[in-house]
User: What shape does this take?
Amino acid sequence: MAYVLGIDIGSGFSKAVICEDKTILSHAIMPSGGNFKETAGKVTEIVLEKAGLSPGDISYATATGYGAAVVDFADRSITDISCHAAGVCHMFPSVRTLIDIGAQFSKAIRLNDKGKVANFILNEKCAGGSGKFIQVIARILHMKIEDIGKFSIQSDNPVEFTTGCAVFAESEAVSRIAEGALPGDILAGVHKAMASKIVNLVVRLGLTGDCAITGGGAKDHGLVRAIKTELNTDVLVPEEPRITAAFGAALSAAENIYQ
Amino acid sequence: MTEQQGNGLATVEKYYSQYGSRAKELKAEGRKVIGYLSALAPVEIITAAGAIPLRLKGYVSEAITRADAHMETIVCPFVRNVFDAALKGKYDFLDGMVLPHQCDSIDRTNDVWNYNLNLPYWHFLNVPHVTDDPSIEFMQSILRIFIGTLEKFTGSRITDESLIQAVKAHNENRRLMRELYDMRKAGAPLISGIEMMKVLVAAMSLPVEESSALIGSVIEEVKTKEAPADAKMPRIMIIGDQIDDTAIVEAIEGAGAQLVMDDLSIGNKMYWADVDVTPDPVYGIAGRYLRKLKLPTTCANSGDTYQENLEARFGHIRQHIMDFKVDGVVLFIYKYCDPYGFDVPAMKSFIESTGASVLYLEDEYSTSTLPRVKTRIEAFLEMIA
Amino acid sequence: MGDTLVSSVIGPSGPEHRRLANKVMEEALASASIVFDDLAYVVATGYGRINVPFADKQVTEITCHAKGLYSLLPTAKTIVDIGGQDSKGIKLNEGKVSSFVMNDKCAAGTGRFLEVIADALGVPLEKLGDISIKAEKAAIISNTCTVFAEQEVTSQLANGESVANLIAGIHEAIAVRIYSLISKLKISPDVAITGGGAKNIGLIRALEIKFGFPVLVPPEPLLTGAIGAAIVGKEICERAAGSGEILKRSAQGLQEATFFS
Amino acid sequence: MADDKKPRALATQAAAKIPKFVRGNMSETLKAKEEGKKVAYAYINDGQDEIMRAMDIVPAWGESFSGVCAAKRDAEKYLQKAEADNFSRSLCTYATCTLGFDMLREELGGEVPPGAPWGGMGRPDMIIGSGQQLCDPRFKWPQATQHYLQDVPVFVGSMYYPPWDPNMDNMEQEKIYVKYATEELHACVSFCEKHTGKKMDWDRLAALVDLTDRTWDIFIDTYELRKAVPTPMDTGDAMNTMVPITFNLGTQEAYDYYSDLYNELKQKIEKNQGVADEEKYRVLWGAGLPSWFALGDFQYFNSMGAVFPAETTYRNAEKIERLDLPETNDPLEHIAWRWVRFWTHWYDKARQRPGSIPKVERIIEYIEDYKCDGVVFHSTFSCRSWHAGIVQQAEILRKIYRDIPVLIMEGDIVDISSYNEADTHNRIDAFIEALETSKTKGN
Assistant: This one.
């Protein structure tokens, strides 16, 4: 029995997963903060402790994500795009279209039947469709990211956001609030705006097979609902969508051992 | 259109707020409706084909949601917005579209429109950018190609006679609109900039005779208005391509100014110059759209000197500033617009040389930026006060 | 009616402009120990000026910054206002605005840019200046888009770049944007900086390098607009007194206004 | 993700010769005065090259100058100068960079501003633009320039080609277009005669037009050698070797350059020398001008075994026989036919494949001929002409051809502020993984 580590240093959060072969033993999530190197060490410590293992027990470690380069103790690094694919394919084998909503980027990924990346597309150099959009709005509404979904879902009258810019959405939101718009409606508006940007990526890629959503954005029920509506199809969401890439990294680590 | 008599502005309000509704009605009665983009489209030819020319407009207060799946965001925000509106079905009642080659944003997306909308009739009118004699001859050739495709589509010939009739009808339409413009020369215009914007939008959504009737009834109605007290408000002219919503006008007039003149592609650019009635009507049409119509995309460098070129490009603006006693000019240019964008420094200094102040705004085709635009306009008015 | 500043209050803005407007007004009245009715005239300015129901007149921050700054630093010919939402350049001619520019639809070169970066680096906004002047070498920040600059900063940080150098790099980047914005006015000294950005010594230094000469900063940059608004109000009162006309005042008293919030 | 910071190395010696070539073109514009030659601001692919060469007019290429500024990461000061006079940041940065340079040079009374890359460009005696379909800046840029060089005469000609329309026969339209283009070229000659005080030597022109035909042919023959596996040269080099065909058309130097390159590539093929240590993936550069400040990214591809045996960008030539040009005694009409057919000769192919468009047909042909496993598009934010429509091309390619891995990169030609290396490399890494997948799936 071999233990493998998958570690995903994202621009927002760092995640680590330990698998015994292809089963998750433990996972850990923490903000990436300013010092990726330090965070990588810390999140690994935590995940090892949770699994009751020591560094020596890990036979292979694969790093992924924005800060993968700093994980010097990893045996190999792969992009988070492939890792998301591997992770999702293992959880939902029927998925062919994958949407990942990260802090900086949203991605649409098409998988082949082996769970490999057949084609992919990232949002333009504009944060409009990324998790950043939500963060900005949450900040001015003095609201916790995790509370956003439930507010948004109650709204049946989303505010129309005409700007795509995450930063200037703020001033638009401020004037809407001044006009008396409800927080729920504003959030629903944000979700609508983001969803249409994200769905455009899927359209450009071509929607095929079942669709899943991963990444921090997948924890936001309001956003997931908005995407379902725009896509006009149901979507699958992993139990803990944020660790998908780390899990995928662990899976590929497991494969590397037996090669 | 008898119901219009006396209540022209009410009808204008209806056609402004329900854009294209009249064309839809006529379509139901079996008329053909051809949508067109830009002031470069020779509406005379569409009219002569027995079809209704409907100017394509966007929806400034709507976010672009579907276009980005097919069209880059570096494309002119106006073009993207109209394309988005078309994808959302706002122009489903059209039989076809004509896209004149005004700029790269239209030329390079012609495929994208055609491919995604796939209407029964489609034509890209390849208008040249140069205005010398060979260009006039070329313009006539491509106008004949255009005529040919329309004849094929409608199944009936477009005779010179019908073209001449159409030319006369549209010249009359222009004459009437100019008469309405003249009413804004007064110290206190009888018609506000907001009303005028609605008239311009309504007028471009109707068959030419109905459009003329509507303008006529607006003139009658405006004439009978009580002349407002001659308020000392700054007189503003707005310059740009297609601004087809009252939002920006409200920002100007709401801040205590009067919009008395425009050089917009749905306004003065459409109505100032007539088509010469020539034995070969196509010759007159070519001359009007290539030489008389002043767009930054038709490169009039007829002159030998820079000054002559400036006159050819911007001379008409000085004329308007004098005729309409303009105090300040709002230069409203869309982001990603090469043709207008490269003109800004020259145009700005040309206008300032006439003594009028200039507020240059580079912006989106969207109300999302309105708060910032308002502040700039208010500050501009405070400045020239 | 004198020229002296009787009292001033600064409070954070936010979504509920109206309530905040009342709050700062009440505090200002209290510290001046007068009541609302003692005020001859009220002028509101700034991004939320329309949300000050009890104001008798709204004037843009451009005009007010000009007036305010001219009263504080009469030698200034060019004003650079670095606010939260946008940056402005104002050209002065005997205290009157002769031309102005504002940043386009992009947060680069505004206070927001600094806030976002400060957030990302976990450094308090007011500390940015002091930290950055300790930098040995400004990091190169190539992205102008706020969000992507933030990403660029985090990745450089991950690659071991020092916080001080990054902040210096960010100041450099903003100074570049602001300078090319202000250049449209054909800069002439003296140049004065106002707004929140003026409190950031690092940014001031970076701008001075671009301009090639030292700049002026009023004692309390955040107040410049409000002072200007007060001056506008004073002028209106004096003009009215001169011509003997009765000033039209807003129907909204301070108390009624609070019902809006 | 190894962060590849090595200085850019080139696969061919020919490519390494290019900086000298470009520097030569620029210093020509500075020497012209004492040699009594006239300098003209010119714009690539306007079809006026042979006319200028035949009249000893020295072309000064703004696109080349701005590209050099960008490659040296030294464009910002010029871009800012232009921006300070209200040229929007979203306008073509080739144009705004050169305009900023023009403004500074005028402030110095015509002297080249100190520190200008490679000595800068000399002040032009005339400006020769074109209102052709290539892009709007081609006729707006000259107008904007004259605002600062008010004494300099401007000519704007025109060279259109029939628009693609699946339901229309372009053949009959071509005559109209060629007639028009020919007349415009004649107008260009009269303009040049007027401002040089010389008469056109029509025999010399005819000779140069023939030289250009032969240059187009040898250029294509040379580039087709890149079909070899491993490919002896990739797009990273082609972004250099494009210089003679783009800026020196109608000169013997250009012809000789490609015959040298032809021989070099032949030798490399015999020695089985590739671009990458191990050629794993062959990728088509499907569309887009490069980010001149980030040409190192091609090496980043190479470092992962990905090479570009072909590109549509700057392959602005075709085998003359393939264009099937009608006979004519007027060299200018020949130029017109050559350029019009350069665009229209793809139309029939596109018409035969329902749902296709010429641009995509060209991409498909190169994918097949050069055995490509994927396509990279590059979208640059300040240029609409070459970059609006890329999303559409990718979509059509997927629908009518096959689901080949596609990467759309984003940047700009000159303005570095839109570029993010970490993000770009991240996208490339993922693309490589997608290529790997599709190859293993393929066989």
